[in-house]
Each structure stands twice: as C-alpha cells, then as structure tokens.
Amino acid sequence: MQKTHFQTIEKEAVAEYKDRGSRFLAYAFPVTDVSVFKKRLTELKKEHSKAVHHCYAYRFGHQGIDFRVNDDGEPSGSAGRPILAQIDSKELTDTAVVVVRYFGGTLLGVPGLIQAYKTSTVLALQLIPVVRKTIDDTLEVFFDYTLINEVMRILKANNCVIAEKDLQLFSRVKFTVPAIRSKEVSLQLCELRNVEVKYFQK
C-alpha cells in the first residue's frame, strides 16, 4: 500500500544529559539531503572542538529508506544505533540527531553509553513538535497555449499547487500533487491533444 504521508520536524532543538561527569548534548534538526547534514555536522564539530565524540544518525526520504549511523569512536552499536532507534520510534524522516559527548573521566560501559545516547536523543526530540506532511509528486506539463484553460481547469479541480509557469506559444507548468493522485492527474492531462506530462526529477 502506497504511503500518503510522512512525519518530520521543522526546527532545531538541543537537550543536555549528564552521567557520571560526561555531558551529552543532543542536537535534533530537520534535514533533507546529505550536503546540508554535513554542513551542520561541521559547524557542530567546530563549535564543540574539545568534545571527544560527535555521534549521529539520520533518516531521509518520504519512504525513509536512506539512513546512516555513526559511533565516532564509541564502541560499535553504542551510539548511532540508539540515536536512530529514537528517530524511528517517532516514525520520523528528514530528521538528523547529532550527540556531542564531553568525557567526564569515568567509563560508562556499553549499556551506559546506549542509555546516555538514547536518553539525550529522547530529550531533544521531545522539544520539537512532530509535523505530518502529505507525500507529493512534482510534475511538469507541456502544452500549446491554446489549451491553457483546459490544463488549468484540471489542475484546479485536483487541488494541484503550481510551482512555476512559463506561458508562451508552447507552455510549461510545474506543479505538485499528492502522490496517490498523481497518476490520475497525469492521465487527465494526457487526454488533451498534444500534451506531454513528465515527472520532475529533483
């Protein structure tokens, strides 16, 4: 069954957790691609240059299939996985969490680390409202200008949101529509004469 919605966050939050002298600062923020994430990670590493670890996890995409975890020197599975587990427990995507650790001189052991990275992530995500969004497809329709009224009537009837218009002798309109209805809209448009519809690739 095709997913029609996804859940994400729209702003950044930071929370602190302490255990036996170690400080864990969890930064949760919205992110939609790796380059934006890397930029924020670099900023945090610069801001917390004396921290011993900068562990993280993220999940991208409306289907939530793109993800990564990083323990940044902590024992394998003790940091990145617990962080991702909390992102997943809220069914979030387009979301990243970086947890900065300042070592307090006492080893916490793997169970202690798992608890610390989990708890700091939970605290940060609790500060941000979860936003539910419709999964949309972006399409482009190419047509002769004489068909402008028919094309616009179909787009309006299906509550499409126009992103760009290039109205000339041969015109182009870029628009978004809920993914679950994009095929139906495409078929309606293609029933018009000499109309071409393409899915817009980002």
Could you tell me the CATH topology label of the largest domain. Answer: Ribosomal Protein S5, domain 2
Mean pLDDT: 94
Main sheet strand line-up: 2-3-6-4-5
Alpha-carbon Rg, integer: 23 Å
The dominant shape is elongated
User: How many domains make up the coordinates?
Assistant: 2
Describe this structure in words.
The chain is of the alpha+beta class and 202 residues long. It has 2 domains: 5-132, Ribosomal Protein S5, domain 2, CATH 3.30.230; 135-199, Alpha-Beta Plaits, CATH 3.30.70. It has helices spanning 34-47, 80-89, 109-126, 148-157, 179-190, and strands at residues 5-8, 13-19, 22-30, 53-60, 66-70, 95-102, 131-134, 136-144, 161-166, 170-178, 196-199. Strand 2 and strand 3 (22-30) form a beta hairpin. The model has no long low-confidence stretch (mean pLDDT 94).
Q: What would a concise description of this structure say?
A:
By secondary structure, the protein is α+β, with helices and mostly antiparallel strands. Helices cover about 30% and strands about 35% of the residues.
Strand-helix topology:
Layout (H helix, E strand, L loop, with lengths): L4 E4 L4 E7 L2 E9 L3 H14 L5 E8 L5 E5 L9 H10 L5 E8 L6 H18 L4 E4 L1 E9 L3 H10 L3 E6 L3 E9 H12 L5 E4 L3
Antiparallel strand pairs: 1-7, 2-3, 3-6, 4-5, 4-6, 8-10, 8-11, 9-10
Helix pairs in contact: 2-3
